[in-house]
Structure formats: structure tokens, C-alpha cells
Design a protein that fits this description.
This protein is α/β, with parallel strands linked by helices. It has 2 domains: about 190 residues, D-Maltodextrin-Binding Protein, domain 2, CATH 3.40.190.10; about 100 residues, D-Maltodextrin-Binding Protein, domain 2, CATH 3.40.190. The chain has 12 helices and 12 strands. The strands form 3 sheets. Strands 2-1-3-10-4 form a 5-stranded mixed beta sheet, with helices on both faces. A 5-stranded mixed beta sheet has the order 7-6-8-5-9, with helices on both faces. It has a two-stranded parallel sheet with strand order 11-12. Helix 4 links the parallel strand 6 and strand 7. The chain is globular. Pfam families: PBP2_Ca3427_like.
Length: about 290
């Protein structure tokens, strides 16, 4: 029995993958598909791809592009979520700061260098006219690490998906003082070069099963209750999240959309230069539009 390992954050975005994996669609071919929750985010998943600890990872777009530019041995096999990610800007719940405009020295708690929680600080800094060189970072690992590290006296900001953190905002352990959206589609499906060589079309078949499941979930009346139950979220919050979220459902990408995203990332200092689509896309399995 061969094992095809999939890794993603333990968040509601990944329900389509978990549903498909639960069916073990390749058992008759002698392939077991496994799922690993990675709470430390995209930076850690890029590392797992490099170290051969996973075959496929569901990574933030900006994090994969930066890691690919730095030598990641992987390819994008499609988008996972096409809508932007809405990041909450969080500080300690008892901080005297109540508005983003009150922040004097922008400092951030991040899961690791190269993670979305770090890279999105550059998007926020550009919007707020903060000098990129003035930003400071402390690595805390994940959401529990941020909760442990925060103190009321120092308003260190923690950027994380706003609905994932909503229970802690509701309990006043965290205070949300703003939001910032990624100016590009937020999640990509990434497979290591070794995995594509070893599993080939099986990875593409699995991706297409996920696209079919994503399409079903976007239309199903039971999706709200399924997400609320599995991820311990308020049903009303899930309803709102679904209106703002578009899972990818086809193996196609827009050339113009990717070029625009990369130009944004170059302007923000996330990338040194625009990447060639031929280099980072697994072109045999992805249709390029435009």
C-alpha cells in the first residue's frame, strides 16, 4: 500500500479535501490518502514539501510563490480557494488600544518567517503607510502560541483568518482592531516534484474529486451545519463566511490574474521578480486562460 500525504491548515477552507479523503478513493489501486492538520501555517507546509514530509500541501498563494522563487521543488496543480482571504488584525483582548490608528510601532506575532501571517503584514503596511523596515516580528508558531504570547501592555498584532479566531474575539481573549484582505486568490494546491513523478495522474484525479466536492458544498443546504459542527463555529458566522468565499471548481487559472498577483507581490517586496508560469505551474494538468 502506497501513501499519498496531504497537508493543510485545520480550518474550514479544507472541508472538501477532508470529505474526499474520508472516502479513500484510491484504495482499490493500493493507495491510501492521508490528511495532516498543520496549525503552524503555510511556512511550515512549504518546509514539509521541501523535506519530503508531505506530497501535497494547501498553501497560501503568496507563501508558495515566495518559496518557489527561493527554490521549492514543487508545482502548483491548481487553485484551492479563488476568493481573497480576510485576515483579522488581532491584539490582546485587554489592550487599551481600540483602533488600528492607535498603533505607534507596528510589531507582529507570526507563525514563522515566510508564512502568510508575516507576508500579509507587508500588505497592511503599504495600506497604512508604515515603512516596511520599521516592522518587527516575533515567531510564536500558531494561534495557541499567539494567545500565550500576547500581553495587554504591548499591542503586538497577530494576523489570522477572521472566522477561525472569532470564538476568541467573542470571548474577549482577542480584540480585532481591523481587517486586511489578500489582493489575490488565497490558496493554491501544491505538489512536490517527487510526488508528481511518483503518483502522476492520481494527484490530478484527486484534485478533480476535490473540485467536484467543493462545487457540491457551495450549493448544499447542509454545508453551514457541517462546517459549524466540524470546526466549532457559530452557524451565523459560517453563513457569512460562505458568502465571501469561492472554492475553485475547475483545473484552470487566469494568466492575467496570476501576473497581476505577482506584480503586487513584487511591489510589496514579497517577490524579487515575476515568476514564469511555465516554471511553477504543472502545465500538463492545468488549463491556462487568457
Amino acid at each position: 500500500m502506497k501513501t499519498l500525504r496531504i497537508t493543510g491548515v485545520p480550518e474550514h477552507f479544507n472541508l472538501p479535501w477532508k470529505n474526499v479523503i474520508a472516502r479513500q478513493p484510491f484504495a482499490s489501486k493500493g493507495i491510501e490518502v492521508t490528511w495532516t492538520d498543520e496549525s503552524r501555517g503555510s511556512g511550515q507546509m512549504n518546509k514539509a514539501i521541501r523535506n519530503g514530509e508531505t506530497e501535497v500541501a494547501l498553501v497560501l498563494t503568496e507563501s508558495f510563490f515566495q518559496d518557489f522563487e527561493n527554490g521549492s521543488p514543487a508545482k502548483m496543480v491548481g487553485f484551492h480557494v479563488k476568493s481573497p482571504l480576510i485576515w483579522g488584525i488581532h491584539i490582546h483582548g485587554k489592550s487599551p488600544v481600540n483602533q488600528l490608528s492607535e498603533i505607534q510601532k507596528p510589531s507582529f506575532l507570526i507563525s514563522r518567517m515566510g508564512s502568510g501571517s508575516q507576508l500579509m503584514s507587508y500588505v497592511l503596511a503599504k495600506r497604512e503607510n508604515w515603512e516596511k523596515g520599521s516592522l518587527s516580528f516575533s515567531i510564536i508558531g500558531n494561534l495557541p502560541g499567539a494567545l500565550e504570547a500576547m500581553v495587554p501592555e504591548k499591542p503586538e498584532m497577530f494576523l489570522w483568518e477572521k472566522y477561525t479566531t472569532k470564538p476568541w474575539v467573542d470571548s474577549h481573549e482577542l480584540k480585532r482592531i481591523g481587517e486586511v484582505s489578500s489582493p489575490w486568490p488565497c490558496f493554491v494546491m501544491v505538489a512536490s516534484d517527487k510526488a508528481l513523478e511518483a503518483f502522476g495522474d492520481v494527484i490530478l484525479q484527486l484534485r478533480d474529486m476535490v473540485y467536484k466536492e467543493s462545487s457540491h458544498l457551495q450549493q448544499s443546504k447542509s454545508t453551514v451545519s457541517e462546517i459549524a459542527t466540524n470546526y466549532e463555529l457559530n452557524p451565523e458566522d459560517v453563513e457569512q463566511w460562505l458568502t465571501q468565499t469561492q472554492w475553485a471548481t475547475k483545473a484552470e487559472v487566469s494568466k492575467q490574474e496570476l501576473l497581476k498577483a505577482m506584480q503586487n507581490m513584487v511591489d510589496l517586496g514579497i517577490l524579487k521578480k515575476e515568476l514564469s508560469l511555465r516554471d511553477f505551474l504543472f502545465s500538463r494538468g492545468v488549463r491556462i486562460l487568457d
